[in-house]
Amino acid sequence: MTSTFQTGNPDGFDYTRSGNPNFRMLDACVAALEGGQYATCFASGVSAITAVVSSLKSGDLILAEENLYGSTYRMFERVFAKFGLKVAYVDLSRGENWGEIERQRPLLVWLESPTNPLLKILDIAGISAVAAQAGAAVLVDNTFASPFLQRPLELGATLSLSSTTKYINGHSDCLGGAVATNDPAWQERMVFAQKALGLQPSPFDAWLTTRGQRTLALRMERHSANALELAGWLEKHPRVRSVRYPFLPSHPQHELARRQMGAGSGIFIAELAGTLEQALEFCRSLQLFTLAESLGGVESLVCHPASMTHASVPPEVRRGVGIGDGLLRFSAGIEDGADLRADLETALARIYA
Ligand SMILES: *Cc1c(COP(=O)(O)O)cnc(C)c1O
Questions:
Q1: 17 assigned to active site
Q2: Is there a contact between 300 and 283 (Cβ–Cβ < 8 Å)?
Q3: pLDDT tens digits for 268-294?
Q4: Which of 27, 123, 151, 166 is catalytic?
């Protein structure tokens, strides 16, 4: 924990905005996890996104998947649009739309897989191959899968971005972000952005994240096993209209998910039959799933997008994109799976008594 370093120190540190031993440790861990040469850590996932977007200039085009993390969309539209950045949105889960990459010639293709909250799966290798032909870089927001389950750089992406706040740290005790790459020019831009825009994390948060990632493999195995079991069980429940989880055969891109991910991760969504009020009552009845935003921590969370993350979106628009009043997003923690299932069972029995 220091803001500055004695000039001439053998490790070449000068001031913590542009480097700190704790950042170096975390950078090396994230690069190794992602199977990449380089990584740069930031104060949050949003800081990491800022670093990438700030390296573009007025008139540059990003071609983005249409189902994006809300803060990414907000940054594109409410911050960088003012500076002349152009962003076009397409449904990149449909192969017939990949021709837009060739046609629009973006500088950067922006993907997320699985997407938030609908858990769409995008074909990272397929899209990266088309983008390479068109001379476009590809960024994958890898937050929902984590590098333990999915390594975008190995599938041909240029940049793999994580909100380390979620799975990589995994303990819900600090925010952080990271960008991994094999491209020295992009790496130089990330290091520059960290320093020039003041996007660096606190040394202590970098240390916490380095400690958190040591158990990433064990946690991801349990998160995935719990989510698979709970999603499979909920799918058969008479009061549950639909369930979506990448490793259930009912997921529309199940085969692709199995090809590019090692397991399904801890997030699943379920639509309850009933009203918005019943969905909220269900959430409030849960004992082990806390009603909260965020995901990827050791404790189970539940989120009601219609009243929380997507409350500002008009109801018709929300329903149009598949976010109904009864839709719930679950982040399965690492608690005992039978306990979690009993919790869901009790809450369902209560609202449908
Ligand atoms: C949470 C999240 C972010 C933003 O990360 P913060 O650490 O909250 O700034 C970006 N992308 C995805 C997919 C996320 O879930």
A1: yes
A2: no
A3: 999 998 888 999 999 999 999 999 999
A4: 166
